[in-house]
Input
Amino acid sequence: MKTAIIGAGIGGIATAIRLASKGHEVEVFEANTYPGGKLSEFQQGEYRFDAGPSLFTMPLFVTELFELSGRNPDEYFQYIKLPEVCRYFWDDGTRLNVSADINQFAKDAEKALGEPSENIIQFLKEAAFKYEILSGLFLEDSLHKFSTWTSKKAFKGYLNLPKLGIFGTMNKANESFFKQPKTVQLFNRYATYNGSDPYQTPATLNIIPHLEYNVGAFFPKDGMFGITQSLVNLAKDLGVKFHFGAKVEEILVENEKVKGLRVRGSNSEVENTHSPFTIHHSSFIISNMDVTPTYRKLLPNAKHPDKILNQAKSGSGLIFYWGIKKEFKELGLHNIFFSNDYKTEFEHQFQKKTIYHDPTIYLNITSKYKKDDAPEGCENWFILLNAPANEGQDWDKIIIETRQNVIDKLSRNLGVNVADLIENESILDPRSIEMRTSSAQGALYGNSSNNKFAAFLRHANFSSEIKNLYFVGGSVHPGGGIPLALSSAKIVADMVE
Output
């Protein structure tokens, strides 16, 4: 069975692997000259950077792709479990290094923040319980199939509905659970893992810390791009054919059923030698492209689900990639420098559509574990700020102001003039995110999750109007981030089968 996949993001690659292992003839068409989408890499002088996602959780979702293909994961992909989850910094001098050992984390939080250790332990126990209930219902099956709602997993969810936090916000739940504002802020930040506002998003997202603490945080031996590269290698070994620099211009539909793709830049069969396009016929088409441009650009004559496509978008990001001429022992792989007014920061992001002058800074340094990512005595700093989706803001002005605010905040906390240490720099903002990854408005996670109905406002993994058309990746069910993109690949592959 011939299947075409639009986009070589992690969801598209994983879907290709699942289908190829079941005997499908799979071709992947990627507009960029490299795989991975957001999960890519680049070189900046002597510094290597992972371009996008920097936290690796749920490695089982990756290794199972090798196992179901009959391959040994260790021959393709190696990773370690991190002894430390994150380091937190507040401007008043408070610091907290979070151990991967939950009991140690709880003790350290009690000492540094004044939060009773039993609160941390109980919160993470409840997060594990909620994840067990919700993952079976929301993450493993399509919410758009009647059978999902009549399954045993669904009824288990119904029985536990009051405990799942569907009707309150993350912040309210955390304020009622913890005694110290800094602990509330620490756990509120997990809303940003899918581009949300903790003061609006439902408390069900308090399942996210379960992945990082109860399961663990990990680091791929070859950096985050190692995930992409290992899966591409597996896909190729299974016979998947990749076309890079091949921009899909249209999904061809005939009698309400997919027929194939019209592609610019592909070097395969040409139906019209005088045309810059090639036509690729396929029985199944799976779009790993953001669902909004999939409809708007690739299906111009189809009926568009405007109610879904016009939903408010998730947050985006402003990223500074800095080569730093110094090593900092007080910094780890993952570091957070918190804003002094978290609520106002999110109001600026989601209401005022800009970046607060005192932003929370996420600083990732892969050279802490992968030494060749930076020259000796230096570090590769990946700095991510929560940003609104692109709605025509003056990004050039925002970047200049935010860059200085970041330098000032880091310099205060680290006791050194960071500006003097920046050897080279690249910047990624919502405009360039949209351009490079076809993410509508540069949103990192598709539609916003800032309401209790968000899970039901994502597009299904299939088209109800066009037969044999499917959707995979962070813009559709079940959501954004590596684990959810890989979950969507499983859902789609099972549907195609």
